Amino acid sequence: MPRKLAALASVLSAGALLLTGCANPSTGSAEDDPTKPVTLKFWHGWSEKSEVKAIDASIARFEKLHPNIKVKATGNVTDATVNQALRAGGSDAPDVVSSFTTNNVGQYCSSGMWVELNPFMRKTGLDKTKVFPKTLLDYTSYEGDQCALPLLADAYGMYYNKDAFAEAGIKRPPRTMSELRRDAVKLTKRTKSGGYQRVGFMPNFRLYQNSPDRLFAQWGPSYFGKDGKARLAKEKASKEFYATTRELIRGQGGYGPLETFRTSFGDEMSSQNAFLTGKLAMHMDGEWRGLFMKGAKFKWDTAPLPVPDDRPETYGRGYLTGTVVGIAHSSTHQNAAWELVKFLTADTDQVVAFANAIHNVPSTKAALTSPKLDSDPTFRAFLDIAQNRYSTALPPSINGGQYVTSLQDFSYGVEAGKVHDLDAGLRKLDDEIDADNLQAQN
Amino acid sequence: MATLTNAPALRRKARRERLRTLGFLSPWLVGFTVFFGYPLLATVYFSFMHYNQIEAPTFVGLRNWRYVLEQMPLFGPALWNTLWLVVVMVALRVVFGLGIGLLVTRIKSGVGFFRTAFYLPYLAPPVAATVAFVFLLNPGTGPVNDILGNIGIHAPNWFNDPAWAKPSLVLLSLWGIGDLMVIFMAALLDVPKEQYEAAELDGAGAFHKFRYVTWPSITPIVMFAVVTGVVQTMQYYTQALVAGKLASGVSIGPGSVIQPGYPDHSTLTVPQLVYSLGFQNFNTGAACVLSLVLFAIAMAVTTLLMRKRAGLLSAED
Question: How close does chain A come to B50, measured CA to CA in Å?
Answer without folding.
Answer: 6
